[in-house]
Predict the structure.
Amino acid sequence: MSLNIDYHQILALTRYALLSEWRQASTRVTRGRRKSRRGWAYGTIALYLFVGLFLIRLFSSIYSGESFIAAASLIILYEALVTASNIFLSFGAGFLSPDEARTIAPMPVSSETFFFSRLAVLVIYTMIITLTLTLAPFIALFFVLDAGLVTSLLFLLACILSSITSAMAVVVLYGLLQSRLSQSALAKAIGYVQFFGSFFVAFSFVILPRLEAHLDLERLTISALPWLAYLPSYWFGSLAGLASGSANPILAVAALALLVVLAVACYVLLAKHYQAHAAELAIAQPRLAGKKPSNTRDSRVFQLYIRFARSHEARAVFMLLRAQFRYDMKFRMAMLASLPVTVLYLIVALLQGGIHDPFAGDIRSIAGTQFLYIFALIMPLVLMQSVSQSENYKAAWIFFAAPVDRAKLLLAVRNALLVSMVLPYMALLAVTFSFFMPAGHAVLHVLVLSAIAGLIFQTYLMFSAKMPFAQPRQQGRTSVATFFAIAFFGLVPLALLLAEMYFGYRMPGMFWPSFALILTLSALMEQTVRFRIRKKLDREEFEG
């Protein structure tokens, strides 16, 4: 089988792809100022390194025998799943690259050359993820547990190869779906996989520390559990344990064979017609975006909002948000992300002792629900951040060219989000809390959460006002970074909530005055917010 590839072109295309991604994530120029974006990339790497510290605990003092293989297999399985989720999230439309296909189409680049260049980018990206996750366990094995250089290197090699195998499996899955589904069905399938995969990554950081405490690695052996021999992660764990003498070499060979089989399958499914598939996807994207759904009836919420909207900007914004929600899968998933995130933090609260009545319990008893409260408080900010970004951000020129009041436009976005997303979310939260406390206490508690969230939302708009859909979507900001960002930036609203719980909830005569104080502060900020937004947006220029 002859390969129609040019190695110099592969090197050039790979280098171009890596540099362009880094530059896009690094800086952008705004009115002569260079704004750095590398901090988020560095932060994500630092978070992966931090997560690797938790993986060390799986080894404890075990560095030989079948227990070592079991511990290595668990780490390998986790890293493979994280890699697969990140590949779906970061590569957007799967393995294809429509934007690059448009650029390369008129050039003398064969489809196989283009395929191998994308494959090289995928492998490099996978290795970066794996190395950051595995660095801490590798150092612990070699320097702390004295496992030996060979065992430590084999463990590192097994982790890298298993993650590459996981990435190849994602590409094979995409190739199979691409050959059997229409572009619209494929886009929806990829969107749902991205949606749920991102929350698996975040959820794993909650479950992993608790799962490790209940594992008995001495019992996770092939002799006790023969079905382990059918798990690919155990095959790569056997590769890591070859130096210990207790691993089955056949399983290690099976791991390498699986990688080769998936690599060949990638080539067979995509290489020959890779450019054609990418070009079809590039053509299909605008066609899919313009496709109207069969059900075009306006909802009652939409009709009521349009009827009572006081300005043309408010009506236009609500129609725009509705259209984006209908036609843009990624925007729809970003808007709906609040529900599974809430479920995630609800599970965290239940694992840490359950949800307690804040009016009756000790203030320390609600510590387990802090993540749930934090997300409820900053959820409007998360929605506003999603509205400010779009893959079609260049179309936002209309906001800068149209004779509209930009401040009214942005405030209309705020009001539309409050009516269509925040209020229903808070109502659902009140129903959820009513299962753990009296219904009256649940409603009052959610009213306080809503008031503090509104106050934080006003503060955010005062200092970080952005035109809607005018910023490019940041692919590198994974759910891992978002998970920890919520925990960090939610400390201020959580402190306000705890102060209200301490002074307002525990004193019967202080609840309504303190609640009214929060509402008054938010109302008094309105004029300042309008002034700041108008001043900032009038100086903002279109960057597309």
Confidence is low (pLDDT under 50) at residues 25-36, 476-480.
